[in-house]
């Protein structure tokens, strides 16, 4: 659709001409997020479609209200936009319309020491948010891999999880209240613990709705005192099954480490050791590690023997890290089914070398020291071998690096993506094996367990694949779609959930009905109430 001149004039009256754009460069930019399926076409020079008709940048909630009322009057779609870091197509304007970028709404105010809450506008960048809290002596405890390029509103809209979620919870566990402009152009506020005690929690209805019910403009969030102490440790354990048992044992004892990450054999070999020294800055880099706790003399993490299969995997590790890539090298390697099978065979051979398990704890000094000692004792009782602090701190230094390793893979003709699914402990190993087999028919796949809780855990699959260069982006998209179809169908079949923290967007929308069944009718009814004209982020979340 095209925006009428009079609508543009009305938007300029609301925002001023400098905060309204129909420039081609802006429309192209806001036509996509970081969904890898879209990047395949972009890499091959395909024109991005569809695009928004206009982009606006509000600075106050009253401007959002006015824009939504105008859009409702003219039946124009609205797409809320945060940092654009989503990987599921949640910000794609499938019917054009008005994209509302909230990044000019970025105030952090009312940090309440007695209530341990803060009020923050939706457009504030995540890394800036955490640094501002740290300057005041607090933390939100939310450190997603996208922290440098995502916003608070985007976290809330997708029910995001940070790397320390085992201690601090996912973002929905930290929300006290929300301010949201609905599709009716009405501002609703859900804040206040007393309201939750008198009836349903409206926060939980709006959290994770991805802009389909309204535009999140601000949130009241729980904060925690900045940690006095951080402890990180690497362990080795024989296999994924024993590692999952060890993690469950720790959590069901009531212990709450901040970081729990178990890498499977292939992920351990490719990614979990041998980092370069350089790492991203850390908001809490000034905190000292705990003194050693009954470690004794610990051996270094063993470097694998240079058997042919391991050398092959080591070469792939270098390729995945962007080292020494030549044009077509990754494409040729991953395009060979024979080589893929060798790699999988090599992964099985090195299974005896075990899995890397990283544990991190933080908080008040005495409590953290005691909890670390108890956690490490439980892991060792479950068969894990303590490999010392270096591996744990190396993970912390490089925890954001993976986001910067993907571009060379796309550049060289392949593609990479991550599939984060979850299940209760009784179904977790079935989920791991089923999804790994389903994806493995099409791509090289590795996995790690993270975001662990007393009742279950998330599994984060990383896959790398390619298609013949002569077939172009269309063939790559077909393979990409087949990977996701088989992976998510396997997830549903074993009783897992199709998304733990990346959201749904366009990518997972077709699978919502299979997982939620009759409950989708409740969501659809809420959509009809909050957004009776269907203008809010159409096409997402499996809604009609």
Question: How would you describe this structure to a colleague?
Answer:
- The chain is α+β, with helices and mostly antiparallel strands.
- The chain has three domains: 97 residues, Uridine Diphospho-n-acetylenolpyruvylglucosamine Reductase, domain 2 (2-Layer Sandwich), CATH 3.30.43.10; 118 residues, Uridine Diphospho-n-acetylenolpyruvylglucosamine Reductase, domain 3; 265 residues, Vanillyl-alcohol Oxidase, Chain A, domain 3 (3-Layer(aba) Sandwich).
- It contains 21 helices and 18 strands.
- Strands 15-12-14-13-17-18-16 form a seven-stranded antiparallel beta sheet, sandwiched between helices.
- A hairpin with a 4-residue loop joins strand 5 and strand 6.
- Helix 3 runs antiparallel to helix 19 and helix 11 crosses helix 12.
- About 7% of the residues have low confidence.
